[in-house]
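Record type: monomer structure entry
Structure origin: computed from sequence
Chain ID: A
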Amino acid sequence: MALKAFVVEDNVSIRESLIEALLELTGIATHGVASTEKTAVAWLNDPANEWDLAIVDLILEPGGSGLGVLHACRNRKPGRKMVVLTGTANPEVRKQCEALGCDRVFDKSIETDALMDWCLALAQAAEG
């Protein structure tokens, strides 16, 4: 069974590239996207929406933050993973994200390959 992703990213070109890479490199299909904190929180917390992995940017459209998304999803179902992909992945930010229940933090500028490797391992583990 293929994993279902949700991508929270306000930069359209980055979001589209990420969705394409996820599918091509890991087999993970994206079932929803959001560019704002409010939209992401509503979608992720809606019991009608199925997802296994949320990839969250921290800097979102004005007035929103990926930290708010992480905070709102702290009590998600077991097995659902949340990772951060951000350009601001310094040690303090990493600590904040982990305190909010984030599974991993990846730096957009230098760790996108590591993100894809992590997602691939997650997808392979789900296949059994």
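Annotation 1: DSSP finds five helices and five strands in the chain.
Annotation 2: The CA atoms of residues 18 and 64 lie 20 Å apart.
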